[in-house]
Amino acid sequence: MATSEKKSLTGFFWAWGIITAVGVVLSIWLPQRYMPEAMSNDAHLTMTTMILFSICAAPVAAGVYAGALHILRNYRYRGEGVPPAAEQIREHTKLLVTWLTASAILTVFVLVWGLGALASENSNTSSNPLVVDVTGQQWIWSFSYPGSHVQSNELYLPENREVEFRVTSEDVTHGFWVVNMGVQVDANPGTITTIHTTPDKLGVFEVRCEQFCGLNHAFMDAVGYVVTPQKFTSWLAAQPQQS
Amino acid sequence: MTTTLEPTESVTQPRGGGLARRQNFGTAVAGGVIFAFLGWLLARKLFYTGSDNFSDQVAVMTCVGWMIGFWIGIGAFNAPFKWLLGNDNSRDDDLYYAGHNQGRARYWKYTTDHKVVGVQYIIVTMGLLGVGGILAMAIRTELITPGTHFVNQQVYNSFIAIHGMVMILALIVAVAGPWGNFVMPIMIGARDMAFPRLNALSLWSLVSAATLLVGTLAVGGLPVGWVVLGTVADQAGVGMDFFAMAIVVFTVSTTVASVNLITTVISMRTKGMTLDRLPIFVWGTVVTAALALYAFPFFFIAEANQILDRTVSTSFYVATGGGTSWLQANLFWLMGHPEVYVILIPAVAALFEISTVMARKPLFSYRTAVGAMVSLAGLSAVVWAHHMFTSGWAPSLGGPFMVTTELISIPTGIFFLVLIGTLWRGSVWMRLPTVWMFGFIFNFLIGGVTGIYLSDVPLDEQLHGTMFVTAHFHYIFVGSVLFGAIAALAYWFPKVTGRYLNEFLGRISFWLVFIGIQITFGAMFLSGLKGMPRRDASYSLAFEHTNFISTIGAYIIMIGMLILFGAIVTSWRHGEPSGPNPWHANSLEWLVPTPVPLENFDVMPVVTEDPYHFDKEIVSS
Amino acid sequence: MSLDTAPPSEMHGGTPAHHEAPEVVDARQRLGLWLFIGADVVTVGALLFTYLYLRGVDTSGHWNSLLGYRGSLHSYEYWDNAANNGTLKNPTLIYPGWLSSGMQWLVSALTVVSAGVIWQAEKTLRATKNAKSFSSMAIFAMILALVGVVVSAVLLSDIPQVFVAANDSLTMSYTAYDSAMMAIVGSTLGHLVILAFLGLGLAIRSVRGAITGDRWFQARLVRIFWVWVAVSSIVSTLITTTITSVH
Q1: Together in a domain, A164 and A134
Q2: Which of A190, B45, B185, C78 fits a 20 to 30 Å CA distance from C39?
Q3: What's the predicted TM-score (pTM) here?
Q4: Which of C59, C63, C66 should be substituted to probe chain A, the one whose Cβ sees the most A Cβ atoms within 10 Å?
Q5: Which CATH code of 3.40.50.150, 1.10.287.1700, 1.20.210.10, 3.40.50.720 fits the domain covering B116-590?
């Protein structure tokens, strides 16, 4: 019966460290390089979460990859024919317990962070949000500001004021996604779904449909603007009044 | 592949004439076409032509006709009606239906021999993967740059849905179909499965359903997304009726297959094959079958409701009538999430099995591996609404479903521990199955971690409906499940054919597919991060670079898969002979000859230990 | 694993008939049946989920109301023509009402009684070994099931339609409640057809000697399934007759 000698673990730990480092760098860089410009409190939280979860994942991935590399380097059978039997290890309770504990801790951490983020998103900070009614219809978004009897196909929002979107559809299910603000909710016929967020940066943003809704789903975009409160008021006043 | 048992007397004709003995795939198709036509005629006579639903009613009747005619033609109704009339099969009948002495013809028939069914599943899986693959190439080619190129939006929208559903069907059966059928009964020391006729029924129902599914291409397509959300599915043309009927038939196929698999493992193990000596692959198939048994009825009802909405204007998913697409989404995902574990677990279980043989040591922490598969299956039944975080159906349930979903990362993590732990300090035999297994390890980690992002509600509010999701599940389906399926094929190919799958071509294929996946889906993650929605026939300039890269990667994958296909075809008849136990493994399937005799074992084996003792020579090949 | 070859207790050569004891085969078939019943439990559960969830959401308040015209008043063609000619008056909110509890309970009762008949038939067969009387009782159970099929069909045809001319579509439609009931009653009907088939099979097989006082396993298998269908019928009728309006 063949035994395989225990190979030195130095290489494994080096690999683990290096891959973790690369992973952490990518975790910090990739989201910021590629994700859309964050223009709301929710979007900032999303970006932070993305980076944090990636950093947490890096050592886990690195451990598995370093392990696989270690096996490929040290335990490959390089002879002819059938390899001899290896040491018939069936259990390693310490390793199992360590692994389970570590993964449980990581899971709980990720959960607690996520539940906390969810709670902070949902806490209704403002008693007087700006209400915008969003209606999806194949294949166009329209926004109406009930307080002011204004309807528009472009979404104007004032900076630093919480907005509550009340979303519905005239026909099939659409997906109302305010890309730069990290919030989305489906637009369903016959019901109203609600999300809210607070824009905190001036500029142009995008609205896209993210629930497949038929032929021109790919073109169901809208453009939005976060403007100063004064500009917003004057824009509202300049729009034609709807009944 | 003839059997090695010779009858002492010639096989006699059954009572009732030889008609039943002439049934095969040809008569099935003929029956299907004839009854489809009859259904079509009947519908046009019976139903009010001015109705909005007329074309759907005709389509559904046509599909019902196809289904019934196919089953009549293949002989699925023979046994029930014989039962009704009190005629039972003789021993000769049973042997005939098991394919005895029929040579290659038995692969075209309602054959009950589980090994024949296993090979049939290999062929059907390859066919479905081929169709899905062609559609994938069409999709990626269309997306090479922004704008519309060679297909219009309607066709593109149709391609993505059919690609999705065809591939899902292919992956559901990719490991459990061929190997759950061919190998598993031999592995437990049984002569056949518990319900051999249900075995044939599940295979041929799949063929019938797959025909309807692919047939949607011919009747206007399926421009609704593969999750066929109730509202948009209601609007679609008759392709949607074909889809819904395909699903109705498909759930029959999976239900009977699950009943068969579970009963076989529970009640037909040979003497000494206690539960803790059961090969880990068998555990995987049982857990999968139990999960499938629970999940697929939801899909059946989801699509049956849709059929009613479309044919008689009920209001399950129609808001004006009091319906809601949230109902369809709930029913669909109650099936849909367990379904992805139905897809995953057999691949993982096969890799567990392979890892022991290729490392020449026992499975690391066998009971934990079983526990991980069982808890994964159990948890998967209570996470479904994470697909609906942004639907608005129940905002207060976001938290609970987030909890259950993130808990799944624990058993999934165990899979890595078991695989790495088995290979660690092993004498790792770098043959073709091992190579694909390492690829699985790399890809499954990426797929798994990105799933955790999506399980976080605030993150999902950004990423849901983007190409990030698409990249995540392609890393799982293509990068992980497909790799496991190919490893399983390379591993058990010698048992089926007596030859090795060509190692050289297999490795070239591996590198092309592996690298292609990183390019295609790595770039796709970036498309999604940037904000590209999924199911978009055209996209804005911001996403053009990542899409271009993804398309290049897709072509690399395609070349790799074509090489693999070539390897399979050439190796089947002309590959290097392997002998009955090329991997020197100890599970029972390797201790029977190749080709495997009709009833597997001459003398029933008695088992005294699990198959993971590589330090003893058991039986020389 | 080690392969201790068992002493040859079966015939070698040729095609030995590997007969397994009927008890072994029966145990296996019962396991398969219970697994199949498990899938059926989920199916019926999904139907009841459909019913309860639609009622819970009550989209647009239309769990059991629809804006349109009472469909039963005229033929589909009439409504279609009127809509196309623009001669339809304004639509009103139609309340089709609840399906007859009495008929629903009748179907359940028929299922339960027929299950009792089949069970009693099995017991009698095992005790008296009288295959002929078993056959008659099976026929009786089959007839009860067929009556159930007829009553279910009547119930289905009673489901009220509302002609809806909204947006671009003109169609005979159903409220969410009626839609869910259609699915549930349809499923009941399907199950009863299967029961009738099984009852007929038992009757014929016992006359032809495939089922006897000593070989009664298949009778038990059918009985188990029959009882399940009866139980599921009671559960669903309980729900659909007591949980109706949204308040």
Answers
A1: yes
A2: B185
A3: 0.94
A4: C59
A5: 1.20.210.10
